[in-house]
Amino acid sequence: MQFLETTTQGEERMRRFFIDQALVLNAKIRLSPEETKHAARVLRLQPGAEVILLNGKGLEAMARLLSLDFEGAEAEILEINKVTKPIRLELLQAPLKGPKMDWLVEKATELGVDAIHPARTARTSPFVEKEDRWARIAQAAVKQSGNANFPELHPAQSLEQAITSLPPNSARILLQPGAELALHEAILRSKRAGAKVVILAIGPEGGFDEAEEEKLIAAGFLAASLSKQVLRGETAALAALAIAAHCIDFSA
């Protein structure tokens, strides 16, 4: 199979639909009932419309709707693109309480995060793990944002377990208030050094405690500061990911 390598989205905004099956050139694909409903009732598309199908694994397919009604939809794949990323961006995050974690999963996905590693810490607030809900939120965010990759959503673990599960040979950055090195400079250093994976570690409200910071630094994390202001956990995560995404995508 021939793939077209692309790193940016085209100028024309096309409707995107998630497909949980293999994308094969010239194949005819049935949309799920949920996606069919969205195409027919919400977007009011018609047969002949061109759409993008994505599997969340870095592949996008240009397709044409062959049929569409309230009972089902079928599309024919015309072209397949493989979307590449120069650097993976991952987040080791102390879980946030209540809807804040839902919000963070959505926004992190929009910003192109490739994996989220929830890590319980001494100061982590009680929370309910909602992997199925987070997966649905991430799927919607992938479609909305134009990303081609569905983030890996790891189950919540202790900080020690989360550190052990991280990919080896990765550039690791710990957000630490007061650190001399600025976050953007830490990311640019990693990029210039040829890093293929950048991992940001962000603590809970109140931050990582001293023992946890020592564990992270012993595991290869470099301390960097985000702001002179004191930020809430969700604000720090969003700001850090936005800075990282910009440095990875645009900075030399």
Question: If you had to describe this structure to a student in words, what would you say it looks like?
Answer:
Helix content is 32%, strand content 27%. The chain is built from seven helices and 13 strands. The strands form two sheets. Strands 7, 8, 9, 10, 11, 12 and 13 form a seven-stranded parallel β-sheet that branches. Strands 1, 2, 3, 4, 5 and 6 form a six-stranded mixed β-sheet that branches. Strand 11 (171-175), helix 5 and strand 12 form a beta-alpha-beta unit. The protein is elongated, with a radius of gyration of 20 Å. The two termini are 33 Å apart. Mean pLDDT is 88; it is low at 1-12.
In total, the number of strands is 13
CATH architecture of the largest domain: 3-Layer(aba) Sandwich
Q: How would you spell out the order of helices and strands?
A: EEEHEEEEHEHEEHEHEHEH
Supply the CATH class of the largest domain.
Alpha Beta
Low-confidence stretches: 1-12
Inertia-based shape: elongated
Determine the CATH topology of the largest domain. Alpha/beta knot
Q: State the CATH superfamily name of the largest domain.
A: SPOUT methyltransferase, trefoil knot domain
**Fraction of residues in H or I helices:** 25-40%
Number of helices: 7
Number of domains: 2
Strand percentage lies at: 25-35%
Structural class: alpha/beta
Distance between the termini: 33 Å
Oligomer status: single chain
